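FW: tagging you since you asked about this chain on Friday. Here's the raw sequence from the shared folder, copied in full. Didn't touch anything.
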Amino acid sequence: MSGASMSLDSIWVYPVKSMTGGTVPSAELHTLGIAGDRHWAVRSEEIGGIRGAKKLGGLMLFAAEFAQGTGTAEGMAVAITLPDGSVVHSDDADVDARISAALGHKVTLESLPSDGNLEHFR
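HL: got it, structure written out here
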């Protein structure tokens, strides 16, 4: 297709698997996709394993975004808006308890290991 052009209207990023995300002005691409996209996930302490909206539908009522000033580099903190409108950060000591209480299911928030080991999420 000689002479074909493309334009990009917006870039959507979902920092936490199965939670609402948002747009970013720019993004860094890696071999696994957009840096930071689905970098975080919740692990069910009740049924085991990383679980998404198929098993924990309430996750779609949460919204996640990169915490202010952290950019979009992998490993950054995220701010999570709970269904009641309150916000908890991934580095808050009570993050797991607050997400669990809002979800009605005991979970822990986990980030992708720095070595990129995808087996961690299986």
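FW: Strands lie at 11-13, 22-24, 29-30, 33-34, 40-44, 50-51, 63-66, 78-81, 87-89, 107-111.
HL: agreed, and The CA atoms of residues 12 and 23 lie 4 Å apart.
FW: great, closing this out.
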